[in-house]
Amino acid sequence: MVTAVTSFGRSGLSDWLIQRLSAVVMTAYFIFIIWVFCSNPDMTYPQWSELFSQTCVRIFSTFALLSVIAHAWIGAWSVLTDYVTTRLLGAKATKLRL
Description:
This protein is mostly helical.
């Protein structure tokens, strides 16, 4: 089995699964933040600070941040390996010389 050194997971299936799970976590976090804003339209800084001082919100925020990083890494890697080729880079380099 061939493993890519720069891929996030061990295989394409694990990368796909990580990207889908990270999308679910990011969606849940986005819905949570929208719910907080809609349920407390006049939220003050002390209330906001109190909300984010809770351990469960900190953990959820950390998972959301890690999900964004993993999702972006896998997405960027997929796009770069699928669409940016040495032929494409060579063609652009030739155009720049002219």
